[in-house]
Each structure stands twice: as structure tokens, then as C-alpha cells.
Amino acid sequence: MPITEVRKDPGTLTLTVIAEYPVPVRRVWDAYCDPRQLEKFWGPPEWPATFTRHDMTQGGRSDYRMTGPQGESSHGYWEFLLVEAPRRFEVIDGFAHPDGSPNVELPTTRMSVGFEPIGEGSRVTTVSTFNSLDELEELVRMGMEEGLRTAMAQIDAVVADLSSFAAGNAVQAQILGDTQVRTGRVIRGDLTDVWRAHHDPDIMKRWLLGPDGWTMPVCEVAVAVGERYRYEWENDAGNRFGFTGELLASSPPRRAVTTEILIGGEAPVTVNEMTLTPVDGGTLLVIVITYPSAEARDAILGTGMVDGMETSYSRLESLLPEITQTKSSGSLPTR
């Protein structure tokens, strides 16, 4: 059991949980950065968590739900007040309605999570600060203390798994619900270079191609919120297709949200949220895709979308050293 101390202090309105793990600090930090890993320990086994957004940067936000054994759900959110990788982060932790809006009828807490090395391992100290003694007692009655104990205990198995989330692994796709899919991959490259590779037309034309044999003759990038983008591909056989959409939100170099629709087709409009997070070994790229229905979700997944993404990301990884070398000049030679 990694938990070494649990301390409830009515005088300071705090609940402190301290746990120790036999792995470096960076490994534990990355488990919090990656929603695929965070879901494996945040919340008790009977109420597993699903993160539909996880933007771990100062001013960012996470949205999650916990699903009970009978299918019931409880929604929550984190608002990131401070992120100092890999030492600590602080969030406002609150309850939410199913649409993600804060449930102001229930209390919030300020949660600070600190990471420090101890010998060859690490110590994680989680301090939850409450607004009043009544709220502290209410949340403890609701199971918060036991929930934190369970979460800390489950991290052991997650951080011991070094291979499942390693840099360079193929794209993983997870169904988050009837209308959402999350894809994730660690790209072996710097955060700013990966962002640039998604927004520089000359670079995009060299990697965002899917299977071999395709080119990208049209690459019009949206830079400001409200602008539209247009991407088109063609092959030697004369086949051609493309996508267009609007940039809904952008926080360079971390997050971009766009709509997407097939040009000239009857495919549904999707909303794609891309989040980039620095982790050991590179940059974690996560895309949450929201479809209008489960049928639309399954139809698009059935096109081989994930395999095409992996082919493109593998190509991007091979290109990133060149992007890094040419960063100072601001140009990338075309081929």
C-alpha cells in the first residue's frame, strides 16, 4: 500500500493524503498528464472515471464523469490554477451537470498535488482545502477521503506499466460514450514543433497524408478563431477528397478545437478537440472527436481512420528532427 499518511485538519480546513511510489517523479507526473492513465486510478474501481477533456495547463480545464455499477453517473471538473511540471499543480475541483457546467449547489475544493523525489522513488502529497468546516464534513461524508485513498492506491499498478503508454506506440482509440472517441499517441518531438507541424502548410503537406500514394495539394490553415480551413488530398489514380471546417478555439501551443465535414459529401459534422501535453519521451497528442450519433461514430471508425492517423503520425515523427533543426530559420525545405 503506497499511502503513508492521511491527515484531516479541521483547523486549516484541509485533508492531506501522502503516498510514495518506487518510480521517478516524472513517471507519476505523466500518469496525471495522460487521460488514458488518469482514468485507471482517479476514482474507486466501482466508479471508474472517463475524462472527456484534459487540458493540463494553467488556465486549462478537465471534464470527467464517474460511472457507477448500475450505470448512474456523477460529473466533475478541474480548473487548473497552477501547473509547474513536474513539481506540482493546483486545481479547483468541483461537481458538474451532465453538460459540463458547474453545479453551484455542491461545494468545491482547492486541490494541490505536489511531487518530490525520495531516494530512487517519489512522494505525492495531495492537499484538499475546503471553504468551510461544514463543507469539509459534507464531502468526507460523501466519500471524498475514501476516494482519495483508493486513487492513490491504484497509481501503483499504472506507473508500473511502462510499455503501454511509451513514446512511439501506435495510436490508441477509445470509445468514451455514444458520441465520443478519444485517440492518443506520444509523438517523439518537442511540444512547439508538434504544434507547428499541425499549423504550417508546408510541413503539413509532407506528413498529413494517410496511406502512401497520396498528396495534399490544398492546405489552407485556420489561424484565428472563426476562420475556416480546407484540406484536400489526391492520388495518382485521380481520386480526390477533402475536409473543411471552422476553428472554434485555439490556445497555442496546447489546444485547438475545430469542426470537420467532408467536402461535397453527406458525412456528419464532427467537433475535434486536440490537446498537446509534454511528457517523458515527447508530446502526448490527444484528440477527442464528438459525433452527432453512435451510428456516425461507428461509420467513421469503420473507414480505417485510426490506421490512417498512425501512418501520418509515424511520418511526422521521422520529419520532426528536420523541423527542430530549421526552427531558428523559420523555414523548412520542401521535397
TrEMBL record:
<feature type="domain" description="Activator of Hsp90 ATPase homologue 1/2-like C-terminal">
    <location>
        <begin position="193"/>
        <end position="320"/>
    </location>
</feature>
<dbReference type="InterPro" id="IPR013538">
    <property type="entry name" value="ASHA1/2-like_C"/>
</dbReference>
<dbReference type="Pfam" id="PF08327">
    <property type="entry name" value="AHSA1"/>
</dbReference>
<protein>
    <submittedName>
        <fullName>Uncharacterized protein YndB with AHSA1/START domain</fullName>
    </submittedName>
</protein>
<comment type="similarity">
    <text>Belongs to the AHA1 family.</text>
</comment>
<dbReference type="InterPro" id="IPR023393">
    <property type="entry name" value="START-like_dom_sf"/>
</dbReference>
<feature type="domain" description="Activator of Hsp90 ATPase homologue 1/2-like C-terminal">
    <location>
        <begin position="23"/>
        <end position="159"/>
    </location>
</feature>
